TrEMBL record, chain A:
Transmembrane segment boundaries: none
Record-given protein name: Metal ABC transporter ATP-binding protein
PROSITE patterns, sorted: ABC_TRANSPORTER_1, ABC_TRANSPORTER_2
Top-level taxon of the source organism: Bacteria
From TrEMBL, chain B:
Family according to the record: Belongs to the ABC-3 integral membrane protein family.
Domain of life where this protein originates: Bacteria
InterPro entries: ABC_BtuC-like, ABC_TroCD
GO CC, one annotated term: ATP-binding cassette (ABC) transporter complex
Compartment(s): Cell membrane; Membrane
The protein's name in its UniProt record: Metal ABC transporter permease
Gene3D superfamilies, sorted: ABC transporter involved in vitamin B12 uptake, BtuC (1.10.3470.10)
PANTHER family: ABC-TRANSPORTER METAL-BINDING PROTEIN, METAL TRANSPORT SYSTEM MEMBRANE PROTEIN TM_0125-RELATED
Chief localization: membrane
Key words, A-Z: Membrane, Transmembrane, Transmembrane helix, Transport
Keyword presence, Transport: yes
Pfam families per record: ABC-3
Amino acid sequence: MPLIKCENVSIGYEGQTVVKDLNFAIEKGDYLCIVGENGSGKSTLVKSLLGLKSVEKGRITFGDGLRQNEIGYLPQQNDTQKDFPASVYEVVLSGRLNSRGFHPFYTSGDKREAVEKMELLGIRDLERQCFRDLSGGQKQRVLLARALCATKSLLLLDEPVTGLDPIVTGEFYQLIRRINRDSGIAVVMVSHDIESAVEDATHILHLQETALFFGTTEDYRRSRIGRKFLGGVHDGNDF
Amino acid sequence: MMETIFEMFSYPFMVRAFAVGALVALCSALLGVSLVLKRYSMIGDGLSHVGFGALAIAASLNMAPLAVAIPVVILAAVLLLRIRGNSRIKGDAAIALISTSSLAVGVMVISMTTGMNTDVYNYMFGSILAMSEGDVVLSVAMAVIVLVLFVFFYHKIFAITFDETFAQATGVKADLYNTLIAVLTAVTIVLGMRMMGALLISSLIIFPALTSMRVCKTFKSVMINSAVISVVCLVTGITVSYVWATPAGASVVMANIAALLVYSLIGLIRNKGK
């Protein structure tokens, strides 16, 4: 049974359909990259996967022990966080909220989990630092640790490397690869960076209002749309 | 010194002013941290003007001021939150629109009924004499609600303030908490504005949060510091107002400015030391 299954999903705003007739599934341990141009419906799809936006048609089902509020989500960077006074520990721990329900306080188990995730991502030494004083790459690691606290089976990353320099970007991809391989957590990544996408991902979903392609990365490389899109990158026509 | 203090507390109106003031300061500081960080600072200012309009209308109709002002301001608060969420008129413009409109309506109503007199002056800049027994009861009730909310839902409020989308994705009902915060802010403002003045009440929401953020590096310490700073500044301000017969609201704001300067200096020295 797949973790997430989308059947004939259409999503839109005020009667205007943004994405239509989507069919795809994410299995345990998959690494799916969602690619497509700006305005192709990637962010809209992310919102629906998280349950922040209802679908117009079709349905999204969750299985294999995954519930909708147990997706480890790494959002696009937002402005408010730039000057936010919070320690790294406070931010990471807030990922455990979905396991709290109505219970108002964190248990020692939650705290242990937060510490474990910080150790896994090599940010334990930043624990007491203020989130606003961190570098871009460190911030993304902290938010990734928070996402890992929220999930056991699936990470959803929305443009995670935007604004990071090439070295930090490389390290971040490596980290994701390691998490995906070692702990079997499925990864869904929305990305502009098609070249890295085909390197790491096992599956590709190419969006352009509808799914132009969904399948394994190997098939994507051989497909007409994949060749066109990847070729475009090499020609430098992407911009 | 001690004599002045004893004398001050021998007047029932002063005791009421301190009681209501301290509780309002505490609540507005806690609510303020969340509002300031979410870029909702101006909502406090807008709501106080709406409160002014509502009080003016209540006075002209000979109705109980709070019974009119509280529901009206709550309504305005919920409306402003909605407007921010989705609308053609952007949030800051919407707030300016609503606040100037209510101010104008208030001034019109007053000038047509009682005329521009000391009442208007007191609404605008506050009066230390304005607090009644009923206000004390209401502010105690409100303070209890705000404190319970912040103790029991502290982690959820943190999550919503830090990252609303993530909080919603993990199943936190952000809309519910946002509305709750807006409603409590509305009540706090109405309660405090007759003492602080419609033009100055929003300082209680904004100053303590900004002041503590100069120095504090964790959300929890920002919360605690804001609450303490706010109450200390209010007590200082009211005392100054009593001793030197200065307007209460302005004196409290002065104390807050002083606190902000001190904390900014500490923050600056700390950063240099690194």
